[in-house]
Design goal:
By secondary structure, the protein is an alpha+beta fold. It is 15% helix and 27% strand. Strands 1, 2, 3, 4, 5, 6, 7, 10, 11, 12 and 13 form an eleven-stranded mixed sheet that branches. Strands 14, 15, 16, 18, 19, 22, 23 and 25 form an eight-stranded antiparallel sheet that branches. Strands 17-24-20-21 form a four-stranded antiparallel sheet, with no helix packed on it. Helix 2 (110-124) crosses helix 3 (140-148). It starts with 25 loop residues before the first strand and ends with a strand.
Length: 578
Amino acid sequence: MVSARFWLFGPVMAASAVQAAPAYDGMASSSHYIRSYDGTRLAVTIYRPTHGGETETRRLPVIVTQGRSDLRPATMASVRYFVTHGYVWVAQDRRGTGASFGVQTGFVNAADARDGKAVIEWSAAQPFSTGKVATWGCSNQGAWQYLALKFRPKGLVAIAPACSSAQFFDHGITLGGIPMLSIADQPYAGECKRPAGGARPVSDQEAARAQPVKEELRPVDEDKDGSLLAQARAGQACGSGLMGQYWRNMPRDGWNTFAKYRPAIEDTILTSAVHAPPKGVHVLQVGGWYDAAVAGQLESQRLWGGRLVMGPWVHGNRALPGLTQPGDTVVPDAEMLAWFDHYAKGRGTVRSEVLYYTHNAPAGHEWRRVANWLAIPSRKQALYLGEDGLSTASSKAGPVLLDKPEAKLFDGQYAPLRRQWSGDMAGFNASASVYSASAAAHDTEITGTPRAHLWISADRADANLYAVLEDVGPDGRASYITDGRLRASWRALNKAPWGASQQLWHRGYAQDLKPLQPGVPVAMDFDFFPISYVLKSGHRLRLSVTASIGEAYQAVDQGKVTLYRDRSSIELPVVARK
């Protein structure tokens, strides 16, 4: 294992942006219907700051979200945080949800984005507004912000999409041809009583602990007798569930015959006809190493500039319950407030950069800054699969079958939105093909995007392939670092539509999909999820390879899969710190 000493950056005094005390002590709310681009009535709630019970009458910048019905304590704490720091908060129910009229046909889509544009422009024109608008939200509430950029909303000066990706299809629907979510086999086509679909729960235990979203079903203020709410709810009866415009195992250019468009292309900004934000819109992204969105956040920051904060978090920009990381002191809302203050109020200074967390870094040096992900001072280190594990020299090791019992990643609790686990990987490794490097002589930093170059064959027309990088301590305990995956029929590499890319990109159009010929080896080249991780002295890097992680919704009829070790390798981005 190649090793290196640290070259220590000065500690990022930060962790989080420092903010002044709130200027207000409370907030007042009102709710209304406004008309969207096509006349659909959208329910909005407006939160305005108060001091001593008096509502602020001066014009203030506005923050727009599509989360009116999300009344969880954490969400309301964020509303109060921004409002008491001098913002008006406008929360909209998406069409076909809550008290809004219309029919939901599959979020995130052009109708949701155009509704967002309508609410942004309405907010900018109100007497409580300075005319400057920012947007806020995580997960699907972050995803619509990217897509709304296609429609050039007037008055928009800053967006802050969190735990979401500008490559929505790749990181929300299908990654390398392997489904990311358990969704329906056919897209929404206007039918009622569709089967349930959406993200797999993080775990049975965490799902049981999760507090459900309270839906705000009370009428808006002008709907005195609730008749408008009743009409809206009646019209929602046959709407789509989450991600209803997509279907399981679709190609990227799959045509949705009901909606008459290609959702995987047009509902993802980097693959749509518009690849970049309009001039004057400044982008702050916040994400976690263990979410699904990492590669898209890094790629869009490289293309667009702006700021990206990448912490040691799972989906939702939070640590797992009971699992804390040293130096985890960045507060996402504080980062967003500093960004909004600069571009909506002309206050303070902000950096266009990637601020990222490095696992196992020396105390006080966990957070580092670079202009973009390509500025990381790394070198590529190839490691080859052999009879005795991973080494820097190629081997003549023979092929092995990957037809062992299905490996259960994270004891069956793995989810793409929560790729972090505090358990021992021994159970998973017992059902995988495992390759370990020699113990590191010095601390070794892996920062960047590891890559896999693995050769396989199968006895049927398709196969899934998963690769996991692990940290094996001197006591033999193995910890998860990162993973990657690819379906064999999606193996063709293509140029990304947005131009030069730092990724290995699999376009996955119907014409690109190539079945396997039984027994004929093919190259499987794919990226792992990016990471910044220090392998400590005395620890070993381990690669585990399998054809399944035990998820039924990802399954493909693959039969026996063979891994050709003499042709296979991985590539690590190793950083030398002096």
